[in-house]
């Protein structure tokens, strides 16, 4: 590779063990099938929170941080200038901005050369940009005339990238020069996604990016085609983000393969669940094209082929600007397909939601253009105020395309000549299935709408810098024909067209149609000439026929009908009919086409399909309140003669669901929200096994295909006759997930009843969830109130209405012991087993999935060095109620009134005890004959745990030797609560009890009678690991005193007095003197040896 610092897993990462454990826990959670939801420590934490495990202020530090761990969250603290590409292989990396350092933005930029992508993500790697709060989403890649942020995958490898936020644009100016003619890296200035790559965009600003239409090779060897933000051959999901004022260049004959797509170009899978696309523009053109070439050009926001699903999002004020040729050009917001390719390449498009507002096309399809050899489904969504300079104010579909339109309404749309609502070209065909139809009313076809998007008359080809062309067309064709519908005469040889006219709408309301002008035999409705727009002399609405029953309009020589049709709905079966129709799944209103098809125009086949919806509500089993946040698995059968589910399942739009394998080897499906897939036969997980071979999708509350915006209320539209199943995929937070499978059948029923599988119907389609709660606590030192303690164990008791508490027991009938879990991958619980600590933080506890009720928390094992309280009098109570705080229940002391501050449960330190012995240095052992009675001592505490006690505040306490046959009769000092007087009645043996933790000095102040006093200062320490006498080691400096035996040396007599006189002379006493001196020397030597021995012993 020419550029690149390849960063792989090389065994590093020991510095990030804690973060790795957290990541492993999340991965394990994601692999667990949803049949039993598993709680983790962060279940109730903000999903947006991120905790950096490393920091980087420059390129070198970033490389080192990535290289140092297989998985890391790296906070960027300054602008990073790249000297070469970073390739991730086998890495899981998240990049966020540092909240304090990146006040405006932290730029990812280039040091010098910029002909490479900053990142390449391949293999099992994943790279995430941003996450958390606004402060950690300030990464930026902007103001680059060359280069790219990230390359996702490679020609032969996969890769995964997620963008959660940040800015990817030029701050100011008409457009960003990202991708200008000097951009040697090609399209997709933010992301280039290869075939096996996967990109998800959840947020971020993508503004003023530009895709050059210049010819020539790029550094990755792909011809420029469009997409200034993303170019993809892989899989892209858009859940959010702002795509604004992104543009393409205008290609010439040197790059006829340039397609467009101001923001996104995709030939793989593109799923749009949300986000805002506004003021994006495509300048792609068909240069000197002919109809037979069918080259694509357009898509102000998106050009796509393969698979496109739009479940939501807003498309507003996007433009398709090219107007060089009449064919294959259009799509103010979206252009779908490539007319030069076959159906296997083009695939299918599903419009299942979203709002298309005020998009413009200088050719066809103000909002959407569907080209040759494509399949499209228009199932749900809103099209309003869109405009085209020719055909299809909102939507245009080309020849040899097949489109399905379900339960649609078009009202108050406008065309300059034919079909104010719906228009079919000379080769267009309209099929009505089960009175599906498109409810058409109050539309208008009139030459006064042959104008610009602003309503200005087109008196010259170029106006306000835009090439409208064909000025004067508004003066042709008298006043037009067909306010609501028009079909043209099949003018080409062997060409046929037809429309199945239905007098019953999908609502069940009946209407009456009437001829409304008559397009002439020469009129085609898509060219601007006099004959192309001519109408016969029929008076609109006063001449012609009235249609009160279904009919097939089939102009052409085969039926000797040498004209087209223009019609209008003139009568309604009820006053409520219009309002009923406005409840349609897909709405077209206020759209305008300069020539034909104010709402919808087609040169292909359009099948109007009648479909139905289903609704249900999630409520609490306790309060009946609506519950938000649940997700559901919706299941449909679609094989053989059974064709349930949405219409697009019929033509292979859905693939097999992705599968995952758990640690136990269970194979589970992994469907996506709002995207249908088929459950493969390989699944073994019990949750999915019953649905093998069926199609499933995930329905999330207030998202994707849920079209009811109220919390806890679900509405799924676009379902055909058949049998369906529902199963809860994720319960609302704080509620037990239902394990039941529900079913419903649709058979010409707008409101199917949901039942349990045994046939028991649900009242008003209400599905209940049982609330649960949680409690967290920690153990702290009662003395300082801060030190967090480890090693405690607990049991939980349920308290009945009578106030009596019963142990919660396991399968063995014994009370369940709750221990502190500190291994992240083992800290899990389920609704079937809630009595496990799910907080992997050491010294902290968290229980979840607790049913409503009152509980008693009882400590069964204290942390080492701390007292275990009496469980009869010391325990803690809490109550789980259905309220906003039930996941964080408050603890109260045994009186039920006193709240435990911050749920920090205190433990008293175990008091210490020390023993020592006074022994004659000349005697061995600990026998009574060696003990010395009568010594006195001074005890002074010099430290409280870890802190020194100021000298002026130290208190010396006198300790005297207690001699009593009964230890309990040893006197106590009422003035000293510590009671450090001798508690051992044996002479010469000392024991002090009830000593606080700390460091002590022990000094002998009075020696036993006949013995020398020790001049040594002895020390000992009492802490959590040293409280019992056997653990206390008295020291002489740093030397331990063996057996805590402190010896005293006897006092000896070294001279006697002389008596009497006589003849003794000094010489006579010389032997005695010498003997005495020798004895003295011997005694001195003995004392020296004894003292050395005593020093060693204590």
UniProtKB/TrEMBL annotation:
Q: Which GO terms describe its biological process?
A: carbohydrate metabolic process
The region annotated as signal peptide is none
Region Disordered, annotated ranges: 231-252, 964-988
Q: Where is the composition biased (Polar residues)?
A: 971-980
> What are the UniProt keywords, alphabetically?
Membrane, Transmembrane, Transmembrane helix
Q: Does the keyword tRNA processing apply?
A: no
Query: What transmembrane ranges does the database entry give?
Result: 12-32, 1069-1090
Q: Does the keyword DNA damage apply?
A: no
What name does the UniProt record give this protein? SpaA-like prealbumin fold domain-containing protein
Organism this protein belongs to:
Bifidobacterium dentium
